[in-house]
Amino acid sequence: MVVVGGGHNGLAMSQRLADRGVDHVVLERGEVADSWRRQRWESFTLLTPNWQTRLPGHGYEGDDPDGFMTGEEVVGFIDDYALRVGAPVLTGVEVTAVRQDGGGYAVVTEDGVWSCRAVVLAGGACNLASIPECAHEVPAGITQVNPLEYRHPGQLPDGGVLVVGAAATGVQLAEEIHQSGRPVLLSVGEHVRMPRVYRGADIQQWMEAIGRLDERYTDVEEIAKARKVASPQLIGTPERRTLDLNRLSSLGVGLRGRLGGIRDGTAMFSGGLRNHCALADQKLGRLLDDVDEWIALHGLESEVGSAERFEPTRVERGVPLTLDLESGEVNTVVWATGFRPDLSWVELPVFGPRGELRHDGGVVIDAPGVYFMGATFLRRRASSFIHGSVDDSAELADHLVGHLAA
Question: Residue 124 has what pLDDT?
């Protein structure tokens, strides 16, 4: 069988298949961990602490468990894993098509065709930036960039910057660009507010403790909606600081509502900024309530910090609803509006009306023997993090072995 993609998901699946005696090959168009090498900005760090960075049979072994890996360190971690497990990776092999071939599949590459009974699509869920249609309406003189292209503020022209999107990527880039001396406006829609540290421990430690990261896709009423939830507003820094909208406002970053469209050179923002912030504050309060309840249930109040609540998100009255993009106030638009997988080479009847891959927890529908890894909330809430591949790969590998046996 064939695994397409030599990142952490493909390697995790490879190890699971090796453990189960399944003959396979991993095809990678570039190098191992290629997207981690080429599609991250220079100051990038993981949102998860080092102790949480793990793959099947291997975890972080350094002396800074509460730190956060840089992009270069992530590449090193994945490279080391590939060598440790002896993954059968062929690099520099680009897959150009996957097609049905009798009772199995043909995986077409520039170097030939692989025939197999099963295929794992593990090329990643963040290969392409999701850019709204209104980007075509941005005036020609304004530079547009997405997070896969962005490397550092110095590559942007002088002048103001509009960052669209306030998930983890958006808030991090808004802060970094503002610190370079450029005025920044941040367009904010639905978002997930989260402190870096709560009651003396990293929020990810509490998310694991209360079982939030282990929530399964089958236990969520609206899984399609859950898979579209933005990544939490977190940043990984040595001092483990929180980065939220209040922090950005205090620095001088201007907040605007969700970008609704662009017409005749004018960006139009929703008037729901206050509501979006209030909803995020409420959800944060419920999460912290759950953590406090877990701490009390396990009798740990004396061993951790005191319970606290955070200041509500500050939203000034009279936030402007429009921005003249031709006025010179903004010279750059950064589209931090999410990502999507590049599955243009999959020539199978497995896509929905909007081009989305139809799958049941990574088991692709209407294509027996085809599997998908790496998506947000694929099988559990942790799926979008590196360590989420540990459990996802085990369950999908078991399903795959059952398919081959049948």
Answer: 83
| Alpha-carbon gap, residue 312 to 303, rounded angstroms | 27
- Across the beta sheet with 95-101, what order do the strands follow? 95-101, 104-109, 112-116
Write phi, then psi, for 178 (nearest 5 degrees): -65, -40
Going by pLDDT thresholds of 50, 70 and 90, the confidence category of residue 125 is confident
Same domain, 162 and 112: no
Q: Give the integer Cα–Cα distance in Å for 242 and 236.
A: 9
Range of the domain at 375: 2-127+341-405
Nearest 5°: phi and psi at 314? -85, 125
In terms of domains, do 98 and 188 share one?
Answer: no
Contacts made by residues 246-249, CB under 8 angstroms, sequence distance 24+: 246/311, 246/313, 246/314, 247/175, 248/171, 248/174, 248/175, 248/178, 248/186, 249/314
Whether 126 has a pLDDT exceeding 90, the answer reads no
How far are the Cα atoms of 69, 316, 324, 350, 404 from residue 371, in angstroms, in the given order? 29, 47, 46, 11, 13
Residue-wise pLDDT for 266-306, tens only, equals 999 999 999 999 999 999 999 999 999 999 999 999 999 99
Q: For 158-213, write each residue's pLDDT tens digit.
A: 999 999 999 999 999 999 999 999 999 999 999 999 999 999 999 999 999 999 99
Q: How many domains does the chain have?
A: 2
> Is 133 among the domain residues?
no
* Closest by CA position to 160, among listed 140, 187, 183, 186: 183
Length of the chain: 406
Beta partners for 371?
Answer: 120, 363
Average pLDDT over residues 94-119: 96
Beta carbons of 116 and 134 less than 8 angstroms apart: no
